[in-house]
Amino acid sequence: MSAAIDAYLPLRRLAYWAQTTPDAVYLTQPLADGTVRTFTWAEVHDTALRMAAHLAAQGWPAGSRIAILSKNSAWWYLADFAIWLAGHASVPIYPSLTGESVRYVLEHAEAEAVFVGQLDSSDRAAMLAGIPDDVEVIRLPTAREPLPGGRASLEWDAVVARHAPLPNPPDRGPEELATIIYTSGTTGLPKGVMHHFRAMAVSGYALKLAYGATPDDRVLSYLPLAHVADRVASEMHSLTTGLKVWFSLGLETFTADLQRARPTFFLSVPRLWTKFRQAINAKIPQPQLAAMLADAEKGPLVRKQILTQLGLDAVRVPTFGAAPMPPDLQQWYLDLGLDMLEVYGMTENMAVSHRTGAGAGRIGCVGQPSYQVEARLDPANGELLVKSPGQMIGYYKDAAKTAESMTADGYFRTGDVGTIDADDYFRITGRAKEAFKTGKGKYVAPAQIENKLGAHGYIEACCVAGSGFPQPFALLMLSPAGSSAAAAAGREAVSAALAALREQVNATLDPHERLERLIVVPDAWTVDNGLVTPTFKVKRSELEARYGARFEQWATAVETLVWA
Questions:
Q1: Are residues 186 and 52 in the same domain?
Q2: What is the pLDDT of residues 170-190, one digit of tens each?
Q3: Segments of 362-425 assigned E as strands
Q4: Is the distance from CB of 4 to CB of 229 less than 8 angstroms?
Q5: Which of 256, 289, 330, 427 is the most buried (most CB within 10 A)?
Q6: CATH number of the domain residue 382 falls in
Q7: pLDDT value at position 184?
C-alpha cells in the first residue's frame, strides 16, 4: 500500500500537474466586484513556491506550525501548499470562532505565523484581536479588516512579488507532520489532530477509487476548509485526480457560485440539502411537484429545470455527511434523479472510514468500509471501532487522550454506536457518550429520536435532553418554513402539527424514551453564537448550559408543547 500511496503525496501531485498540465485551469475564484480570477496548475505551483521562499527565509525550525485563518478561497490552498513547501505544518482555524478560541489554537499550536483572509464572524475585530503579538500576520487578498490597534502585517501580493520561487523545496516524507486540524469542539476545548502526509494522500486516493473523478470533474469548495470534509472532498481530491475547484464568496452569492461552477461532485450536509428542498417547495408545493414529476411527458423537463435552478444539473456524485438524512428527503432527491450517497468519517481518520458506492445506497446506513479500512463493533457497548490508513498520529500535546481514543490493537473509538449487517453496511443508532439517564434510571440515546424529529419540515434543528428528569423532552429550533407557517396561520396551526409529530415519534419509542413535551425556543442556533459547529452539529453541552436553568420549569409545564 505504501509505495502506491506515496505517489499521491500532496506536493508530488502538485508538481505532477504543474509539469504535465501547466496551462490547465485548476482554481476559479470569484471576486467581490463580480468577476472571477483563475489559476492554472503552473501558476499555483509557482506562487506557492514564492511564498514558501518567504517562509523559509524566516529561519523557523523545520516542522513549525503556521496557521490559516480564513474562509475558503484559492489563496487558502496557496497558503497551505506554501507552508508545506517551506518544510512546515499547517494549522487551519475556523473563520467563525471567538477571539478567545483563536488565541487558544494559536498558542496551543505554538504557531509562528498566521495567514488571515476573509472572516465569517459577526465580531471580526474580536477574532483578529485574538492573534498574539508575537505571531507574524500575512494578509491574503481576501482579507477585509485591518488588524486592531494599527498592528503591522504583511500583504500576500507584496510578499509574492519580491521573492523568486524557492529552489529545491524539500520532498516531504510520508511520515512527516503535514497538518494539525483542531476539532470543532462539540464538547470541551478543541483537540489538535495531527496527520502526516500519507494520511492526506490516502484521503484523496480513497475518493478516487470510490467515485472515479478525472480532470474533467468540478467541485465547489464552500464547507469550511478548517474541517476535514472539504479539505478532503476538494483539496485532497483535486490534487489526486486533477479536477477543477471553484470557490464561493459566501451565503449571499452561494446560489450564483453554485450555478456558475455547476459541480459534478457535490458534498453537503443534510441541513443544506433540506434548504434546497424548502426553496423549491416554496415555489411549487410538494403535492403539485409530485404530480409534475409523475407526468411521463413533462417530468424530465421539470427535473432538469429544478436541478438547473439549484446549480446541480451537472452533478453525477451527490454526497452528504456529518448527520443523517431523513429517508423522505433522500427519496425527494431520488425523484429528481439524484441518488444521494452518504459518506462517513471523522477528523481522526482524515474521513477515511465508510462510504456509499454509486447505486449501492441503503437508507439509514452510512455505507461500507472505505479503502483498506477495518471496522468492528465493541462487544461491550456496540461502539464502532475503525482501523484506517488515514489514522491520525495522535492528539497534539495530549498523549493521554490519544491513548484513551484507541484500543490496544490500534482501532480508533469513533463514539458512534450502531449495527453492522452481513454486507458490512454500518447503521448508526446513537452516540456512546451522549446517552443520559432519566430520573427513573433508564438510559436514553438522543440521536435516533432527534433524527425522527428533524425529518419534519417545520424543524431546523433539535436537541433531546432530560438527564435526571422523569421523561426526556426536546428543544426545537423552527425552520424558515415553520416560522413562516406560524407567522401566516398563527402558532395554533404549527402547534397542532408539532403535537401530531410528537405522537407519531413517541409511537416508535420505548416507554422510557417517549418525549413528555416539545419546547420551541425563539433563538437561532448559529455558529456565531456557539450553539452549533461549523458543520451544523448541535453543541449539546452549550445548549444545556444556555437553557438548563429553565429545564425544571419546562419539564413540569402542563402543556405538552411549550413556546419558550
A1: yes
A2: 989 999 999 999 986 544 578
A3: 368-369, 374-377, 383-387, 394-395, 412-420
A4: no
A5: 330
A6: 3.40.50.12780
A7: 63
* pLDDT at position 231: 96
**Collapsed DSSP state (helix, strand, coil) of residue 3:** helix
Cell of residue 351, nine digits? 474521513
Q: CA 420 to CA 425: how far, in whole Å? A: 5
270 and 376 together in one domain: yes
What CATH code is carried by the domain that includes residue 62? 3.40.50.980
Q: Are 518 and 509 in contact (CB under 8 A)?
A: no
C-alpha cell at 189: 476545548
Q: Are 346 and 392 in contact (CB under 8 A)?
A: no
Same domain, 372 and 419: yes
327 contact partners, CB below 8 Å, separation of at least 6: 363, 364, 455
Q: Domain boundary at 431, 448, 476, which?
A: 431
Domain, as residue range, for 446 = 436-563
Q: Which residues contact 386 (CB under 8 A, 6 or more apart)?
A: 349, 353, 369, 373, 374, 375, 411, 412, 414
Same domain, 202 and 297: no
pTM for the whole thing?
A: 0.83
* AA identity, residue 450: E
In the numeric block, which cell numbers belong to residue 212? Answer: 472515479
For residues 29 and 175, membership in a common domain is answered with yes
Rounded CA Rg of the chain: 24
Long-range contacts for 474-480 (Cβ within 8 Å, ≥24 apart)? Answer: 474/449, 474/450, 474/515, 474/517, 474/518, 474/519, 475/519, 475/521, 475/543, 475/547, 476/518, 476/519, 476/520, 476/521, 477/521, 477/523, 477/524, 477/525, 478/520, 479/274, 479/278, 480/275, 480/278
Positions of E strands within 388-497 = 394-395, 412-420, 426-431, 436-437, 443-444, 459-465, 473-478
Query: The CATH number of the domain where 521 resides is what?
Result: 3.30.300.30
Residues of the chain with pLDDT under 50: 186-187
DSSP string of 221-289, one letter each residue: E-S-TTSHHHIIIIIIHHHHH--EEEE---GGGHHHHHHHH--SEEEE-HHHHHHHHHHHHHHS-HHHH
Q: How many domains does the chain have?
A: 3
| Helix pair angle (299-310, 254-261), 10° resolution | 120
Q: Which of 454, 472, 473, 457 is nearest to 538 (CA)?
A: 454
Asked if 217 contacts 264 with a C-beta cutoff of 8 angstroms, the reply is: yes
| Listed residue (457, 437, 438, 435) closest to 446, CA to CA | 435
Same domain flag for 65 and 195: yes
Residues 41, 26 contacting (CB under 8 angstroms): yes
Q: 274, 157, 162, 197: which is closest to 14 by C-alpha? A: 197
CB–CB of 416/375 below 8 Å? no
